[in-house]
């Protein structure tokens, strides 16, 4: 007999110092969602976002490439841009230092009096950026391995499930604040052990919980399941694409997930950690060219009023429980056959979190 594997100690979800270490380490050295490429379609279009406590912006260059820069002037640290917009050059509001769309310093008032200034050596601090089926991801680690190394086969699989991905644009973002640690929210998302008891709409109207399984695929957790009786669906799922009668999900550790509902309806989750006890979850819904779709809107409303609302109560209760003097980490239910009533995905998530805190993030070895 071996001792059961137990969940992480409560401090990993409640201690501000753990959160500080995560921001400095794993959250800064992993691939994080920035924006959808359709949000910055033309040269000079930009949008700002935050990763691991840093403000950054993505901007499309005149060559069509998307670049990402830390949102800070290299003169005296004023933030450069806010929100979304379009510009011919990036101008600091403080002293009008001006940068090209490629990040190089172009000019600044009275710089000619600065002896020994090498203007060519001044450039905005950049971050690694990749487009992934129209989604823009950023990694603050300049030596980070490509996303395909982290998440093997995901690009190809998603391309099969959403063959019209290049035509899709965001239709709706739903912002969901949760009073819990980001790992509590993601662990809840990454197991369906709780689904039958807590998600009647999802369990009875979308998936067959008894067929639900989640398996690691690099630093991806791949969700697979059979669907419920599709004759009971409230919308026409006949898209003309393969997998129109299926549901699947790809969670990209640490903070993003693609989901495909029957009818090849793409939707996403992305998490942004606020502090040790708060996270904001954005639910993204997509349609062809971002055009209005009653079907997608109705799905988003149903999801928000059922599964999402149910999960908020669950994760916030867990967070409160983690602060209880009476909590001791319980054993994970690890079924050798995996399946819906096994917590093996939680074991993977917790191992990844611990190794990341130890600086051992290696996409070549995830076990």
- Give the spatial strand order of the biggest sheet: 1-10-9-4-3-2-5
N-to-C terminal Cα separation, in Å? Answer: 22 Å
Spans of at least 5 consecutive residues whose pLDDT stays below 50 are none
Computed CA radius of gyration, to the nearest angstrom: 22 Å
Blueprint (SSEs and pairs):
Layout: H1 11-14, H2 16-24, E1 32-36, E2 45-51, E3 54-60, E4 66-70, E5 84-86, E6 90-91, E7 98-99, E8 105-107, E9 126-132, E10 135-139, H3 147-150, H4 154-161, E11 168-178, H5 182-189, H6 195-198, H7 200-205, E12 213-217, E13 220-225, E14 247-252, E15 256-261, E16 265-275, E17 278-288, H8 294-322, H9 344-357
Antiparallel strand pairs: 1-10, 2-3, 2-5, 3-4, 4-9, 6-7, 7-8, 9-10, 11-17, 12-13, 13-14, 14-15, 15-16, 16-17
Notes on the structure:
The protein is of the alpha+beta class and 367 residues long. It has 2 domains: 32-139, Rieske Iron-sulfur Protein; 148-357, Naphthalene 1,2-dioxygenase Alpha Subunit, Chain A, domain 1. It has 9 helices and 17 strands. It has helices spanning 11-14, 16-24, 147-150, 154-161, 182-189, 195-198, 200-205, 294-322, 344-357, and strands spanning 32-36, 45-51, 54-60, 66-70, 84-86, 90-91, 98-99, 105-107, 126-132, 135-139, 168-178, 213-217, 220-225, 247-252, 256-261, 265-275, 278-288. Strands 1-10-9-4-3-2-5 form a 7-stranded antiparallel beta sheet, with no helix packed on it. Strands 11-17-16-15-14-13-12 form a 7-stranded antiparallel beta sheet, sandwiched between helices. Strands 6-7-8 form a 3-stranded antiparallel beta sheet, with no helix packed on it. The radius of gyration is 22 Å and the shape is globular. The model has no long low-confidence stretch (mean pLDDT 92).
């Amino acid at each position: 007999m071996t001792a059961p594997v137990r969940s992480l100690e409560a401090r990993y979800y409640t201690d501000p110092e753990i959160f500080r270490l995560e921001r400095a380490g794993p959250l800064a050295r992993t691939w994080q969602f920035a924006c959808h490429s359709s949000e910055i379609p033309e040269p000079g279009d930009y949008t700002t976002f935050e990763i691991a406590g840093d403000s950054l912006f993505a901007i499309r260059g005149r060559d069509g490439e998307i670049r990402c820069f830390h949102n800070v002037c290299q003169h005296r640290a004023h933030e450069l841009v806010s929100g979304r917009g379009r510009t011919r050059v990036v101008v600091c509001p403080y002293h009008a230092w001006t940068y090209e769309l490629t990040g190089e310093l172009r000019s600044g008032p009275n710089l000619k009096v600065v002896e020994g200034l090498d203007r060519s050596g001044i450039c905005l601090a950049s971050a690694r950026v990749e487009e992934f089926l129209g989604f823009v991801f950023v990694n603050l680690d300049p030596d980070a391995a490509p996303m395909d190394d982290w998440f093997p086969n995901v690009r190809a699989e998603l391309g099969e499930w959403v063959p019209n991905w290049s035509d899709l644009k965001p239709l709706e973002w739903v912002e969901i604040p949760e009073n819990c640690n980001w790992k509590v929210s993601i662990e809840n998302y990454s197991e369906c052990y709780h689904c039958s008891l807590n998600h009647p709409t999802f369990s009875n109207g979308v998936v067959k919980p008894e067929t639900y399984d989640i398996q690691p695929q690099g630093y991806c957790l791949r969700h697979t399941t059979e669907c419920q009786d599709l004759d009971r669906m409230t919308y026409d799922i006949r898209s003309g694409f393969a997998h129109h009668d299926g549901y699947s999900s790809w969670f990209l550790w640490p903070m993003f997930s693609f989901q495909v509902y029957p009818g090849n309806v793409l939707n996403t989750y992305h998490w942004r950690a606020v502090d040790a006890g708060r996270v904001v979850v954005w639910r993204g819904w997509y349609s062809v060219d971002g055009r209005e779709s009653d079907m997608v809107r109705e799905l988003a409303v149903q999801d928000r009023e059922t599964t999402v609302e149910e999960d908020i109560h669950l994760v916030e209760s867990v967070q409160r429980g983690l602060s209880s003097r009476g909590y001791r980490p319980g054993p994970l239910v690890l079924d050798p056959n995996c399946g819906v009533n096994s917590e093996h995905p939680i074991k993977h998530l917790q191992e990844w979190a611990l190794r990341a805190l130890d600086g051992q993030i290696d996409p070549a070895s995830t076990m």
